[in-house]
């Protein structure tokens, strides 16, 4: 059972009573009559063949309140798209699979690219962006949840708790971030959040002084969680990064667009585990190494938009301050693990901290070398202004794919 402490400037909704799932789902069924609910699943085709996704779909078949499920399918050829249509056909809810690598959606993507409006790189950010566009195009969901497709500990209670704050018509939240303890297989996971994001935010507070944005970021218990929910109107002017800075970028956008009392975070799982990225000590373009660089750049860019001035000397000070704080966190988590009977490798943790410290400098230099770079994908408001029929065309492309290949699968 979690505590009830409110330890930041963002409302925290705890799990205080292990409320029966059936009771919460019954409420969500009532809410659905006035606030229809959609779920976004950004997926790689390979995840359909893993252990997590079949279990997730098994749980989703039992969810009674969803009006729509939107699946973004990446890295799939035609035969794999056909397989995906069959795979998701067990869902009783209305659902659509966006074949992001199919000719129809690629043609639309190319046209947007010519106008400078398409995502610049492949990845989760692009997948999520097109799924959000489809939600706007379909007009079905008023409340929308999004979660990852590699959660091996998935239970449908996660979704119920995630979407409840934005589905309850008596709450005024526009956005909700999920959080959980990253503990599995007898150890504490979540190295990038524990050993990079929180120590970096604390270091920036010490170097730059009190900043409301940093207090805001420090309020989130798991800022890198891929699980969040929002009201549909949030999607129109949301600009998201296409790289590993997605989660930080979304939080930064919420900070820019909404008052704090319209945002919250919610405890969605006692245990949570998904596939783990390698540290990639020798490759800054892969694994946790690339992730840490992208995340640090996202934070630096946000602070720059608020008038903070960065120099090479600033980044050296940030790195040194971060390193000391992060090493203290290593000891803190070691003691926490030992007290709870969990394993904890001090050496591996300190190796990660050393890499993250170097990557803070790498991210800082990248920012200084190209301060005008805009990694954000344009908002759908902007896209619709430049291409007024974009939602009709997006919906038509998805429907034509579904019609053509679903018929083939059934035959």
Automatic annotation (TrEMBL):
One GO MF annotation is: transferase activity
Superkingdom of source: Bacteria
Going by the UniProt record, its keywords in alphabetical order are:
Transferase
- Annotated Gene3D superfamilies: Spore Coat Polysaccharide Biosynthesis Protein SpsA, Chain A (3.90.550.10)
Which InterPro entries does its entry note? Nucleotide-diphossugar_trans
Protein known as: Glycosyl transferase
């Amino acid at each position: 059972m979690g505590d009830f402490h409110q330890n930041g400037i963002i409302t925290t909704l705890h799990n205080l009573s292990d409320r029966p799932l059936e009771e919460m789902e019954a409420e969500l069924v009532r809410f659905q009559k006035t606030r229809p609910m959609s779920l976004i699943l950004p997926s790689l085709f390979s995840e359909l063949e893993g252990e997590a996704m079949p279990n997730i779909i098994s749980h989703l078949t039992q969810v009674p309140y969803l009006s729509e499920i939107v699946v973004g399918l990446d890295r799939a050829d035609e035969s794999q798209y056909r397989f995906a249509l069959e795979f998701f056909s067990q869902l009783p809810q209305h659902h659509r699979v966006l074949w992001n690598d199919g000719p129809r959606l690629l043609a639309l993507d190319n046209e947007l690219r010519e106008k400078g409006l398409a995502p610049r790189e492949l990845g989760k950010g692009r997948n999520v962006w097109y799924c959000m566009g489809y939600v706007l195009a379909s007009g079905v969901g008023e409340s929308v949840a999004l979660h990852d497709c590699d959660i091996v500990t998935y239970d449908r209670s996660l979704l119920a708790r995630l979407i409840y704050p934005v589905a309850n018509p008596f709450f005024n939240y526009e956005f909700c971030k999920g959080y959980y303890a990253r503990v599995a297989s007898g150890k504490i996971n979540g190295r990038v959040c524990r050993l990079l994001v929180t120590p970096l935010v604390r270091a920036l507070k010490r170097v730059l002084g009190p900043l409301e944005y940093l207090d805001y970021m420090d309020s989130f218990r798991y800022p890198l969680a891929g699980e969040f929910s929002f009201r549909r109107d949030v999607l129109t002017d949301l600009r998201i990064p296409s790289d590993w800075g997605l989660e930080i970028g979304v939080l930064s956008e919420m900070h820019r667009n909404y008052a704090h009392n319209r945002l919250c975070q919610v405890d969605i799982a006692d245990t949570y585990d998904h596939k783990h990225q390698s540290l990639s000590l020798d490759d800054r373009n892969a694994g946790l190494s690339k992730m840490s660089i992208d995340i640090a750049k996202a934070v630096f860019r946000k602070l720059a938009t608020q008038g903070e001035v960065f120099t090479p000397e600033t980044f050296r000070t940030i790195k040194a301050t971060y390193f000391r704080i992060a090493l203290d966190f290593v000891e803190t988590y070691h003691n926490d693990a030992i007290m709870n009977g969990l394993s904890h490798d001090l050496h591996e943790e300190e190796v990660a901290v050393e890499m993250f410290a170097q990557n803070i400098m790498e991210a800082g230099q990248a920012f200084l070398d190209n301060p005008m770079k805009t990694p954000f994908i344009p908002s759908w408001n902007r896209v619709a202004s430049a291409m007024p029929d974009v939602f009709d065309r997006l919906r038509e492309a998805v429907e034509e794919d579904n019609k053509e290949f679903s018929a083939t699968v059934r035959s």
